[in-house]
Design a protein that fits this description.
A hairpin with a 2-residue loop joins strand 7 and strand 8. The strands form three sheets. Strands 2, 3, 7, 8 and 9 form a five-stranded antiparallel beta sheet that branches. Strands 1, 4, 10 and 11 form a four-stranded mixed beta sheet that branches. The model has no long low-confidence stretch (mean pLDDT 96). The chain has strands spanning 4-12, 20-27, 33-40, 47-53, 58-59, 70-71, 78-85, 88-89, 93-96, 102-104, 107-108. It is mainly β. It is elongated and about 50 Å long.
């Protein structure tokens, strides 16, 4: 079980009702990027928040028989946030989280 930290913020658009999605990505040492969390921002306020693990993700190479998991320590607490709205996706923003902390990342669309 990992300690957690929060990443939160708002998405602003020119529309009165906000139609946006925020994704949390993590790139593993081997180069594979995984989508850790994804969901809509609040339609009225644009707010979003995710509780994320600060510990290293556990990874294993594919095996048809037995999987052997190990910690990918190099990427512990390292994520990228991106937001999408009206067919536009923002460039991923790197964030590093620590136990019990909160990292704020806001996105603005025209």
């Amino acid at each position: 079980v990992s300690a957690v930290a929060t990443t939160a913020g708002t998405v602003a658009t020119s529309a009165s009702l906000i139609d946006a999605t925020v994704d949390v990505l993590q790139t593993l040492s081997g180069g594979t990027t995984i989508d850790v969390a994804s969901g809509p921002a609040d339609a009225t306020t644009g707010a979003y928040a995710y509780a994320l693990a600060t510990a290293a993700p556990m990874v294993a190479a594919y095996s048809p028989s037995t999987l052997s998991f190990s910690a990918d320590s190099a990427v512990a607490g390292q994520y990228k946030l991106t937001a999408s709205s009206a067919g536009v996706t923002k460039t991923p923003v790197p964030v590093t989280i620590t136990s019990g902390g909160t990292v704020t990342t806001n996105f603005t669309f025209p």
